[in-house]
Specification:
The strands form two sheets. The protein has a six-stranded parallel β-sheet. The protein has a two-stranded antiparallel ribbon with strand order 3-4. It has 208 residues and is α/β, with parallel strands linked by helices. The chain contains five helices and eight strands. 44% of the residues are buried. Helices cover 23% and strands 23% of the residues.
Length: 208
């Protein structure tokens, strides 16, 4: 069995200047680039929404971004339009070494369901195929970094643990949205409680 690096949503729309920018989000890119050569298998997730995705505030007249609504029976934060399929905003960060990525899993393609996790949609109604891909590659341990710590990274890590993968979060390789102060810290604590190991990338290089 082997380890894999999972890069969560390191896309232009989540970087400074993007449609749903994460403060200091571009700081995760050099961390990801340093980590990739240390792994035999590198997977990246990509938010890949149709233009009419129901999580977009613009699809709900009279509603504003970051309000909470309902989408197909699930509580849903309404987001600014972001990561629309085929647009520059949905592309990987320009500085990310995409040549080091072995497999890409796209999520959020169903307009009726959002998909924070790289493994499942938010209702756990449909898998993205990531678990099957990792198992077929002989992966039993994941190292995770990317955006955003308190949304897609958190739900990806929780699902990875539930799927049985030993999961390590690279703390200096994530940044959070922090819609409410402390959200990122709470997310890190929740991942640790669920069984994730939290380390700095420098610790990982010391182990290799």
């Amino acid at each position: 069995m082997s380890d894999a690096l999972l890069l969560v949503d390191i896309q232009n729309d989540f970087l400074p200047g993007g449609a749903l920018a994460v403060a200091d989000g571009d700081a995760v890119v050099p961390v990801a680039n340093r980590l990739m050569p240390a792994f035999d298998h590198v997977v990246a997730s990509q938010d890949w929404h149709p233009p009419n995705h129901g999580s977009f505030a613009g699809q709900h007249p009279g509603r504003r971004a970051f309000e909470v609504s309902q989408l197909d029976g699930l509580e849903q934060i309404l987001w600014p339009t972001h990561c629309v399929q085929g647009t520059p905003g949905a592309g990987f960060a320009a500085a990310l070494d995409v040549a080091g990525i072995d497999h890409v899993v796209r999520k959020g393609t169903d307009p009726r369901l959002d998909s924070y996790s790289a493994f499942f949609d938010n209702g756990h109604r449909q898998a993205t195929g990531l678990s099957d891909h990792l198992r077929a590659a002989g992966v039993d341990a994941l190292f995770v970094c990317g955006l955003a710590a308190d949304v897609c990274v958190k739900f990806t890590v929780l699902d990875a643990l539930a799927e049985g993968f030993a999961t390590t979060l690279i703390v200096d390789g994530v940044r959070g949205v922090d819609m409410a102060p402390g959200d990122t810290r709470s997310a890190l604590e929740a991942m640790a409680r669920a069984g994730a190991r939290l380390i700095d990338s420098s610790q990982l290089f010391q182990q290799i």
